[in-house]
């Protein structure tokens, strides 16, 4: 019994082919949109690549770029097929191609769905990459005279100003690293030397943050040094002062930024998947209805269209038997020392040597 059988008249078949032709061209545009979204995400990730660990997080934009290009090609071909299917005679040139086209398109729509799910599952890997990358960038913040790292100070400062954040998880992260280079420390001062000696690793640690952590909405001048020392500043309580510094960590700020982008892209890809699936369903109905018209021999007659000619279980059982039969046909009997030709009798009657030459030929040769 056919699954979701629908009866089509010639008028309905022609209208279906025309609508599918338009929808396939719309799908070409959606493919270009997917390509553009993948390219945009790739650029956004590369823009802050120095703040991320070297992890494989480029697979999502690469997947979207590939899916977008394939969508343009597949739907362009689908538009050509549906345009020709308005004429039953032109359908003959596509008859053998339409079923493989539908199967390939079905697997392609599955890839689109995978791309949408990947957009939502990327958050964990991105968070880990940002956590490691930001920690490394903060550790090398002071190395402004070191080749390959001299740009990190500006990158971190721009990040903290643009995203209104401070540190990796918060402003206290700066207390645990030396973010001022030794070249800017006055070693003649006893306080500086004592602070260096008091640290096991010889680092100059202090309760201070870079200027980029300052909150521009603060009503008082920004306090960057001795942040936890209430007595060092007038009318100041660091535990309740929330407008002095940016309180949000940069990892959370970047994660929210990229999550918003990926959720928007994922929703767009999911809608595209549903649209592609509906177009594919229409193409399947068009193909089966036209094939039934050819069996009937009358181009103007009514015909049935369906998604599956048999039930789901029967279709799965048939395909499984086909796969098993292919496996048996490709099996080679390698018995008897592994030689497949060992049991083939020799039919050759030609033998070489002087004993097997006819007497007449021996006389002539002599």
UniProtKB/TrEMBL annotation:
Task: Tell me where on the tree of life, at the top rank, the source sits.
Answer: Eukaryota
Where are the bilayer-spanning segments?
20-40, 60-78, 98-120
The organism named in the record is Parambassis ranga
Main subcellular localization, coarse class?
membrane
Query: Which portions of the chain have biased composition (kind: Polar residues)?
Result: 334-349
The question of whether Disulfide bond is a record keyword is answered with no
The name of this protein is Photoreceptor outer segment membrane glycoprotein 2
Q: Which Pfam families does the entry mention?
A: Tetraspanin (PF00335)
Where does the record place the region Disordered? 334-366
Q: Name one GO cellular component term.
A: plasma membrane
Q: Could you say which protein family the record assigns here?
A: Belongs to the PRPH2/ROM1 family.
Membrane topology per the entry is:
Multi-pass membrane protein
